[in-house]
Amino acid sequence: MAKNGVSTNQSDLPIPAFDPPKKQKRNKYALACSLLASMASILLGYDIGVMSGAIIYIVKDINMTDVEREVVMGIINLISLIGSTIAGRTSDWIGRRYTIIIAGSIFFVGAILMGFAANYAFLMVGRFVAGIGVGFAMMIAPVYTAEVAPSSVRGFLTSFPEVFINVGILLGYVSNVVFSKLPQNLGWRFMLGVGCIPSTFIVVGALVMPESPRWLVMQGRLGDAKKVLDRTSDSPEESYLRLYDIKEAAGIPEHCNDDVVMVPKQHHGEGVWRELLCPTPTVRHILMCAFGIHLFQQASGIDSSCSDRVIFEKAGIKSDTDKLLATISVGFTKTIFILVATFFVDKYGRRPLFLTSLGGMALSLLGLATGLPLLIVRIEKMVWALTLCIASVLCFVAFFSSGMGRLFGFLCSEIFPLKARAQGVSIGVALNRVMSGVIGITFISLYKSITIGGAFFCMEGLLL
């Protein structure tokens, strides 16, 4: 018995010794797939970042009223809701991978049109086309990532879309600084036109990605789905369990293992809107959570606080170069803290990060609402108020990135049931972009009506 016991133990020893490399190899493949898909989110980030600097030179080259400036800044968020709504059904029909290709291709055309814009109307056409591409990208990136990621690192991998949004913002800020040295009529055109470069990488990357295993099962292609699951799971056992769960959600019998099976019609995208518009109590609760997160994320004013030069102007930063450098610090802060949150989310959970984020954002908005009016009213330079304002902006984007901004994408992609996931996420993204567009279009008018301090007090009230 002792011999058998020793023999059994010795035979068991190599198993844990070889398990880590297998797990690491499979996670590397899932990591690569998630990275490629999440690159689509760069499109939104780049537009937010680059437009915040390009607008300085656009208004000097193309005469604009304050209202036209607000519209050109915020309209892409409203237009993107069209793209995100269409993308939900598109991804169910042609697949997640080809939807990513469509997103990159549309934004490529939009970037070229904006770069060659000769007047305000031409620029708005480019903004419209780019907005459609942004809507596609915002919807599909978290959905694909959530469906391809293994359960052990799903929280980590599904944070990549938000990470790439921040990377895109930082790239946009850097583009502002690099091309600001060009002549006025060329600089902003290069800033916007260079957006075709990341969209090209996205299209090329999507061509080598596998299709989402959940979409493959929904199409009845079980053999193809199993191949993808085997490569993106930590173990063969997990691959089997993931396939079982997806088949159960799709209404496919457990014993059915054919390469191609007949799938009920509604799993090709039909019938989902009825479930979302006339939801059961469970789905209604999911909709309230998902839409509430999207609504309050943008109602906090994150796009205005980190991209509008008015804040830095009111804080005493006058030169265009200094404003561009100040926004780089904002972009760098956002990127660092989104990476910090990415590594902590699976360890500490969603709720602690979310609550900490809300508290920190509220305090930061209080600092802005207090400091900015003092800088405007007082003629002499108040160093402490200037320091408070700049620190509040940096703290606001840091707390936002570590919680509220970090959670909305993957949380919404996780909580929707399989057959309603794509279109449910698309509605949430549409609401997110509507709120962002409303805040962006009305921000200048709002602070001119109730003062800059009053505007930030309103945003703080929404958080509380």
TrEMBL record:
PROSITE patterns: MFS, SUGAR_TRANSPORT_1, SUGAR_TRANSPORT_2
Pfam families assigned to the protein according to its UniProt record, in alphabetical order: Sugar_tr
Keyword Membrane included in the entry's annotation: yes
Domain of life: Eukaryota
Cited SUPFAM superfamilies: MFS general substrate transporter (SSF103473)
Region (Disordered): 1-23
Domain named Major facilitator superfamily (MFS) profile: residues: 33-464
Compartment(s) where it occurs, according to its Swiss-Prot or TrEMBL record: Membrane
Family affiliation: Belongs to the major facilitator superfamily. Sugar transporter (TC 2.A.1.1) family. Belongs to the major facilitator superfamily. Phosphate:H(+) symporter (TC 2.A.1.9) family.
This protein's name: Major facilitator superfamily (MFS) profile domain-containing protein
Organism: Rehmannia glutinosa (Chinese foxglove)
